[in-house]
Design brief:
The chain has 498 residues and is α/β, with parallel strands linked by helices. The protein has 2 domains: 264 residues, 3-Layer(aba) Sandwich (Aldehyde Dehydrogenase, Chain A, domain 1), CATH 3.40.605.10; 185 residues, Aldehyde Dehydrogenase, Chain A, domain 2, CATH 3.40.309. 36% of the residues lie in helices and 21% in strands. It has 13 helices and 21 strands. The strands form 6 sheets. Strands 14-15-16-13-12-18-19 form a 7-stranded mixed beta sheet, with helices on both faces. A 5-stranded parallel beta sheet has the order 9-8-7-10-11, with helices on both faces. Strands 5-6-21 form a 3-stranded antiparallel beta sheet, with no helix packed on it. Helix 2 crosses helix 6 and helix 4 packs parallel to helix 5. The longest helix is centred in the N-terminal third of the chain and has 22 residues. It is globular. The termini are far apart.
Length: 498
């Protein structure tokens, strides 16, 4: 999976171009820390050109019939499907996602996003208000105009599409910055957009470092809306920068998600889901559970089986179809995970599984961390409070369901959580108390594009997917149509019009 001989370009104003100043950056395969591709390294100059192109195109795109916009999205999705054989190894090489994941989830999910948004976006409507019988009052759903999309590296293609598709179908033009370490599949999407026939300036894609390219997008006066997915620290920085222009920001940020397992849980389902959802994509998923609160009556059995199941996860070469868990996305992610592991040990956590790098010759040079499970005794230690974004989790014993919910809420994040019990009445009462955007009962990490996704507290406040996503890319314009021949005013008996 070496793409060094391929040329990758930005997309600006309908043309595939290099960075204005000729800069480039290497893309590193985290499985072996070798360069696999070279891409443009843009600056604020490239961003200015992209925004100018999007601004020129915004009125004509807004006034394009929604069915024609949908047809282009369908065509782009079809091109992704047609090039799946090219995209799958590219997605795997740039961030280490096992080929079993990139082929069965990443690429199909991107295609599905295009198809779903193209279909649902044709039915976006405004409202009528019957407050005054002398008028017709309505709201129109207006696109923001130029939107800036900044996307993460853990699901490079599908997260880009999940922003791009609803933004486009609602009539916005876009400037998209893919992740610096994993932009390859999004740059290929740029090529497919040209082939699909999108008008110049409707889609613009620029690559480069976040502190320069991302901030240039956020602060540009002609970018009217920002949508960002990533860590909470960067999200706060973006909101700070955008506040200077009172710019709308959609933020889908980090999570420190709880899985609550009660005494009457179906243990087979709970263990299987725990092992999958905690270590899927090497734990690099904002919805993965990394805090487990297990009621004391089932604690020993659940933890023992959870540790055994996690120990059977096949860690290895992400190009091998049998691999279940590959490397982390880059070395700094591995180093951060190892720092949290050391912190957990120092804080008195009991290591139940993992805690080290694989030492086999084929993994020694990569950004690997083995599945790691700690027994934790203090909910305030880092292991239970900070988003590690790695295959490192903590489990705690609790006496009651109420205690588990209190501990789950004792965190600055509020993305998602799950409750495992056979008693649905009890589960629904507990879910009413959970401070999260998504709550599952006897499920975790089940996310489909038809359902909304997004959190509360420091996990952000946006909603992606479902019909709710269109709220993020449109604003409501109020229109008043006066029907009476002489509108009523408080001055009508005082004002001499003759």
């Amino acid at each position: 999976m070496d793409f060094l001989n391929q040329e990758f370009y930005n997309l600006i104003d309908g043309a595939l171009v290099k960075a204005q100043k000729g800069g480039t950056m290497n893309i590193i395969n985290p499985a072996n820390n070798k360069a696999v591709a070279v891409v443009p390294k843009c600056t604020a100059e490239d961003v200015a050109l992209a925004v100018a192109a999007a601004k020129r195109a915004k009125n004509s795109w807004k006034n394009t019939y929604v069915g024609d916009r949908a047809a282009l999205l369908y065509k782009l999705g079809a091109l992704v499907a047609a090039h799946a054989g090219e995209l799958i190894p590219m997605e795997t090489a740039q961030y280490g996602g096992p080929v079993s994941k990139t082929s069965n989830f990443d690429i199909p999910a991107a295609i599905g996003e295009f198809e779903l948004m193209a279909g649902m976006g044709r039915s976006v409507t405004g409202t009528t208000i019957t407050a005054d019988p002398t008028a017709r009052i309505l709201t129109l759903r207006e696109p923001y105009g130029v939107v800036g999309l900044i996307t993460p590296w853990n699901f490079p293609l599908v997260t880009a599409v999940s922003k791009l598709a609803p933004a486009l179908i609602t009539g916005n033009t876009c400037v998209l910055k893919p992740p610096s370490c994993a932009p390859l599949t999004v740059l290929k999407l740029a090529e497919y957009a040209v082939e699909a026939g999108f008008p110049a300036g409707v889609i613009n894609i620029v690559t480069g470092p976040g502190p320069e390219v991302g901030e240039a997008i956020v602060t540009h006066r002609d970018v009217n809306k920002i949508s960002f997915t990533g860590d909470s620290r960067t999200g706060k920085r973006i909101m700070e920068l955008a506040s200077g222009q009172v710019k709308s920001v959609a933020s889908e940020l980090g999570g420190k998600n709880a899985m609550i397992v009660l005494d009457d849980a179906e243990i087979d389902a709970a263990v299987e889901t725990a092992a999958y959802s905690a270590f899927f994509n090497s734990g690099q998923n904002c919805g993965s559970p990394s805090r487990f609160y297990v009621q004391e009556g089932i604690y020993d059995e659940f933890v023992g089986r959870f540790v055994r199941a996690a120990g059977k996860i096949v860690v290895g070469d992400p190009t091998d179809p049998k691999t279940m868990m590959g490397p982390l996305a880059y070395n700094a992610c591995r180093d951060t995970a190892e720092r949290y592991i050391a912190s957990a040990k120092k804080a008195g956590g009991r290591l139940l599984l993992g805690g080290e790098r694989p030492e086999t010759p084929d993994m020694r040079d990569g950004a690997y961390v083995c599945p790691t499970i700690f027994q934790v005794y203090d909910n305030r230690q880092e292991m239970m409070q900070e988003e590690i974004f790695a295959p490192v989790v903590g489990v705690m014993k609790v006496k009651t369901a109420d205690e588990a919910v209190d501990l789950a809420n004792d965190c600055r994040y509020g993305l998602c959580a799950s409750i495992w019990t056979r008693d649905y009445r009890k589960a629904l009462k507990l879910i009413d108390r959970l401070e999260v955007g998504t709550a599952w009962i006897n499920q975790h990490l089940k996310i489909v594009p038809e359902t909304p996704w997004g959190g509360c507290k420091e996990s952000g406040w946006t909603k992606e997917n479902s019909m709710l996503v269109f709220e993020e890319y449109t604003f409501h314009k109020h229109v008043w149509l006066e029907l009476s021949e002489q509108p009523h005013t408080f001055w009508e008996t005082m004002l001499d019009l003759n």
